[in-house]
Amino acid sequence: MTPRSKGLLYILLWLLIASVGFGFTNAKPHTSPDGRFMIVNVGDTAQYEHHFELRRSDGSVVFSVKNLADFELPSFAEDILWSKDAEFVALSFSTGKYRQDTLVIATATGKAVQVPDEDLPCQTRPVRWTQLGELVVETKAPFGGKSDDDLLWLSYQYRRTVRIRDGGSRIECVYRTSLVYPYRAQLLKDGYKPR
User: Fold this and answer.
1) Domains plus CATH for the chain?
2) What is the dihedral of CA 113, 115, 118, 120, to 10 degrees?
């Protein structure tokens, strides 16, 4: 097996493993732990008008992604995580080709704030809420485009812990891990020489 074919194999394995860690589109409503709210994916992906909404248990809409100012592409909610008290819900959604961003919505007011990106292009997804009510998000970059050994060589990931401020209007980073280059050691072992 050549180093290039091994690299392609690693890409395929990486995509398979990465997809296991993230929840994909679910047509059923995703209800908050207290049962008062739900995230609902609405529409048909074939019609290019699909979107998601935060609703109360009576069905009234608190937030719709269609009303988000910077929203360009239809998107379902994925990786839905409720805070312990259901005060906030964090989720990932598509914001463009090869882009997946994290949005935090305050359930009481419907205020939504996007977790700021530090890299482009990247994928940012919520991982978990901490005991202190802070959100851990993971960023993987670069993401998209041609998949080859050079892309694997350049790929990295890191996590940030963010704190929600001002009732869901602002997010501040309180901790950031160092960069991890998950594929470099294996590529070097397989004889890959960076350009």
Assistant:
1) 3-189 (2.40.128)
2) -80
CA distance 26 to 11: 26
Residues 6+ apart with CB under 8 A from 7: 148, 149, 152, 187, 190, 192
Quick check: 89 pLDDT over 60? yes
DSSP assigned state of 166:
G
* 81 φ, ψ (degrees, to nearest 5): -130, 125
Bridge partners, 171 (sequence order): 164
Other Cβ atoms closer than 10 A to 181:
13
Q: What is the pTM of this model?
A: 0.76
